[in-house]
Design a protein that fits this description.
The complex is a heterodimer of chains A (324) and B (441). With 324 residues, chain A is of the alpha/beta class. Helices cover 36% and strands 16% of the residues of chain A. Chain A is built from 12 helices and 12 strands. In chain A, helix 1 (3-17) runs parallel beside helix 7, helix 3 packs parallel to helix 4 and helix 8 crosses helix 12 (310-318). Chain A is globular. Chain B is an alpha+beta fold. Chain B has helices spanning 146-155, 173-181, 224-239, 252-264, 271-285, 329-345, 350-353, 419-434, and strands at residues 3-6, 16-22, 29-30, 35-40, 45-49, 54-59, 66-68, 72-77, 242-250, 291-294, 297-300, 306-308, 310-312, 315-317, 320-321, 358-362, 381-394, 400-413. Classes of the chains: A alpha/beta (324), B alpha+beta (441). The interface between A and B is large, with 72 and 54 residues.
Chain lengths: 324, 441
């Protein structure tokens, strides 16, 4: 099953299971979604529960916040994460803070779904990877599934959760296939997956970079006799730091791979946590492989050079063992 | 999920331990709080109790094996759990690479249109955009990773003598492991192609064919305890700037007191017990003498625990009399007898050897009149006590009389004690011993 189909299945199952669930966004109904995640849902559930909206991101999320406070369980789709920037007031000032501001009297069981990622020559404004920006905000849960099974299990969990969830999909991953368990229920937030076991270096891959990290690990094993342990945190908040620390204590080395920018990134944060809590286990500085610290170039070769590929991960791992 | 059993830290100064005997066999049931394994530490043999319930599924340290603290020595798990069980391999997904045909796009802005999933190009070598690790410019500090530093500290290895094979010559974990094994530098198989650095830690004296000028050499391995003593004494001399204060104490009052106590107390307190009691009382008034210099700070301890150096077969053991300031002379005497007995019988336990805040060393029974001792680090001072000897002394009325004199030497760490501090403390000890009735209170 493809990643997009797994998401579609999760939405369908949750729409069926709970009549408070509804979905809303630009082109999600008649057009079936810019990435076809909502295919067939308008037909099946009608336009009260599958609502097309104008191009008005702050309003879309605002309606989601309000209806969530009023007792519904909205799942709003922003066409891409780039447009979430228009909705930051509703996300940061309202969705994230309301439960706290009203002393728990109101809750916001809202899911904001959106894909991120570069690689399609869409230039600096439409190629963002912004998980770090949402990770920054207390009150939001952040999911970054990298497989079809996780996409389904985590989306079901997100819809059933009473907290606002930023659910970050990836444009590249939509077409990837993976096994999805029949009748699989919701997964738990805050449980990392060890994609590959290894004893020499821990590689943490975020979102699509979990896939890149796993491929890099295969190359490290075949070409360099290094066994990398690949960890996909799956959710950034809550973060399963225990699994990462346990692995680092075994391998004594950590490399964090993310598509976003280096400064204030997920890797910067994770590197700080690792050195705070496993300093005496480190045999090398915690390394990061990140997107380049520039606006995303339009030129195809430059764009390819501006986000991490297996080769970067392989080189970063090797550099922890010897001078290159 | 199995629980790892780690080599426990059973004493302050323990860095490694030897598994003597597994009390529970593999497959046997383990109960929290019940004996699991006997371990020899640097100070004593200890029975270590399990801190979890389950079944001993795997033993990783055989009897006789020595491992640093923190190393896994066994695993406790559920009945039927497999040894070496790690996490079950995550099910792998067969992510297909072939781009799928997108559902037809309508008249949408081109840039918002989903493209085919692009496969990253591989033909060009992209510039890695990773944050580079800094190359700590040579300022004399040995470059070593945190884990290497920790292991070296725990094993008592000098980093300076180990050559690093990591990036930029950094000493890494593998180098420490190699040095600990006595093999020169660590060269992992995959790093074979790198040139081998000459071994530096594998030092062997040149052997002359025949016996040398000193005759046949018989080398003797140190016991763990002897190694601890040699390491800590060298550490003390190398780090503590010490000075000595000498004083003679008139013990005539103590001699008299002891004669009287002999009639009523069993065991009668020894002169050393009286010295311990006097020191403990004085330490309460001079907290810095009951302290330690550590990492640029003074640590002052609320409890007064006086260690008493005891010679035991070929080694030195310092059992502790805890809260000596709060104990009567009789209690100190009983504690000291019991501890010395345990040392001689070899069944003293690490808790009885640790926690000392001051040490008294007495060689009076060998007829030594006066001597110096090495500070027991990180304590601030040690009192070296000589033998009682009748000496002519001029008394208050100007007459020469014979008195029981005892020479003591206070060895002080100048980083926490200055001359006047030590002198005042010693004067107070003398005062207490010369008017010993207060000791009997």
């Amino acid at each position: 099953m493809r990643y997009r189909e797994a998401l579609n299945q999760a939405l369908r199952e949750e729409l069926e299971a709970d009549e408070r669930v509804f979905i809303m966004g630009e082109d999600i109904g008649v057009f079936q979604g810019a990435f076809k995640v909502t295919a067939g849902l308008l037909e099946e559930f009608g336009d009260k529960r599958v609502r097309d909206t104008p191009i008005s991101e702050n309003t879309i999320v605002g309606v989601g916040v309000g209806s969530a406070m009023a007792g519904l369980r909205p799942v709003v789709e922003l066409m891409t994460i780039n447009f979430a920037l228009l909705a930051l007031d509703q996300i940061v000032n309202h969705a994230a803070a309301i439960h706290y501001m009203f002393g728990g009297q109101a809750k916001v069981p809202l899911v904001v779904r959106m894909p991120q990622g570069g690689g399609h020559q869409l230039g600096p404004t439409h190629s963002h990877s912004l998980e770090a920006m949402f990770l920054h905000v207390p009150g939001l849960l952040v999911a970054v599934p990298s497989t079809a099974a996780d996409a389904k299990g985590l989306l079901k969990a997100a819809i059933q959760d009473d907290n606002p969830v930023i659910f970050i999909e990836h444009e590249y991953l939509y077409g990837q296939r993976g096994e999805v368990p029949e009748n699989g229920g919701p997964m738990r937030f805050g449980e990392a997956a060890v994609r590959r076991e290894g004893s020499d270096v821990t590689v943490v891959g975020i979102s699509r970079m979990a896939v890149t990290a796993e491929r890099a690990a295969e190359r490290l094993a075949h070409e360099h006799e290094l066994e990398a342990e690949v960890i996909d945190p799956r959710t950034l908040r809550p973060l399963d730091l225990d699994t990462i620390l346990e692995s680092v204590k075994k391998t004594n080395r950590a490399v964090i791979v993310e598509e976003g920018w280096p400064h204030g990134g997920v890797g910067a944060n994770l590197a700080a946590l690792i050195q705070e809590q496993a300093f005496d286990y480190l045999d090398a500085p915690v390394a990061r492989v990140t997107g380049a610290d520039v606006p995303m170039p339009y030129s195809k070769p430059l764009e390819q050079a501006a986000f991490p590929h297996e080769e970067h991960v392989v080189q970063a791992c090797l550099a922890l063992f010897k001078d290159l | 999920m199995a629980t790892d059993v780690m080599m426990p830290r059973l004493s302050d100064s323990m860095e490694e331990g030897t598994v003597l005997k597994w009390i529970v066999e593999v497959g046997g049931e383990v109960k929290r709080g019940e004996p699991l394994v006997e371990i020899e530490t640097d100070k004593a043999n200890m029975t270590y109790e399990a801190d979890t319930d389950g079944v001993l599924i795997e033993v990783l340290a055989d009897e006789g094996q020595t491992l640093p603290i923190g190393e896994v020595i066994a695993r406790i798990g559920a009945p039927g759990e497999e040894a070496g069980g790690g996490r079950a391999e995550e099910e792998k997904e067969s992510a297909s690479e072939e781009p799928e045909p997108e559902p037809e796009a309508e008249e949408k802005e081109a840039e918002e249109e989903p493209e085919e999933e692009a496969e990253p190009e591989r033909e060009r070598e992209p510039e890695p955009a990773r944050a580079a690790s800094s190359d700590g410019g040579g300022n004399g500090r040995v470059k070593a990773s945190p884990v290497a530093r920790r292991m070296a500290r725990e094993m008592g290895l000098e980093l300076a003598g180990i050559s690093g094979t990591g990036p930029g010559g950094r000493i890494v974990k593998a180098d420490i492991e190699a040095a600990a094994k006595g093999g020169g530098t660590a060269v992992k198989e995959r790093e074979k192609e790198e040139e081998q650095a000459p071994p530096t830690s594998d030092v062997r004296p040149p052997t002359s064919g025949a016996d040398g000028a000193k005759g046949e050499v018989r080398t003797q391995e140190l016991t763990r305890l002897q190694r601890t003593v040699s390491r800590r004494m060298a550490e003390s001399k190398a780090t503590a700037p010490e000075f000595l204060l000498n004083m003679e104490i008139d013990m005539s009052g103590c001699v008299e007191l002891r004669e009287r106590l002999k009639e009523v107390a069993e065991p009668a307190p020894s002169f050393n017990d009286m010295v311990v009691k006097a020191c403990a009382s004085a330490l309460r008034e001079f907290p810095r003498v009951n302290g330690a210099y550590r990492d640029g700070q003074w640590e002052l301890y609320s409890r007064i625990n006086v260690g008493v150096a005891v010679a035991a077969q070929d080694t030195l053991i310092v059992p502790t009399i805890f809260d000596a300031d709060q104990k009567s002379l009789g209690m100190i005497a009983r504690d000291a007898r019991a501890l010395i007995g345990k040392v001689r019988d070899g069944n003293i336990t690490p808790p009885e050897l640790s926690g000392g805040t001051f040490t008294v060393s007495n060689l009076g029974m060998y007829g030594i009149e006066s001597f110096s001792a090495v500070i027991n680090p990180p304590q601030a001072a040690i009192l070296a006590v000589g033998a009682l000897k009748k000496k002519p002394v001029v008394d208050e009325s100007g007459r020469i009389v014979a008195r029981d004199m005892m020479a003591v030497t206070l060895v002080c760490d100048h980083r926490i004690l200055y001359g006047a501090d030590g002198a005042e403390f010693l004067a107070r000890v003398r005062q207490l011993l010369e008017q010993p009735l207060s000791l009997a209170l």
